[in-house]
Specification:
The chain has strands at 6-13, 24-30, 33-40, 43-52, 58-66, 71-82, 88-96, 103-111. It is mostly beta strands.
């Protein structure tokens, strides 16, 4: 699985999450290291970095600044699903490492440019 130059949009999220359908992620990959920038909706600017395993699962850490100026941090495990049209959908289980340390689930899906 290669995530290099893939663009994703959030399509669902738990109520306690910050991403929305306005959040766009631009993924890059070098060997087994994945990194991305993301922004949109309530997120002014964010970054993530992670390790990809042989099945395409990603163990990552993320941080972002929201539109209110709050710095947020968390951990996430993403598991890929290949859609019928070949695009990637990532099923994510995450937890904040700030604020209330709550957990959630989200889905992001590859979009064409």
């Amino acid at each position: 699985m290669n995530y290099h130059n893939k663009k994703f949009r959030a399509i669902s999220n738990s109520e306690n999450g910050d991403t929305s359908s306005k959040t766009i992620f631009l993924y890059q990959q070098k060997d087994h290291i994945v990194f991305a920038e993301y922004k949109g909706g309530s997120i002014k600017k964010g970054h993530l970095i992670g390790i990809v395993d042989e099945e395409g699962n990603i163990d990552m850490r993320y941080h972002h600044v929201d539109v209110l100026g709050h710095l947020k941090t968390g951990i996430c495990r993403s598991c890929p699903e290949i859609l019928d049209d070949g695009r990637i959908r990532l099923h994510e289980s995450w937890q904040w490492t700030c604020d209330d340390h709550s957990k959630g689930d989200s889905i992001i899906e590859e979009v064409d440019d």
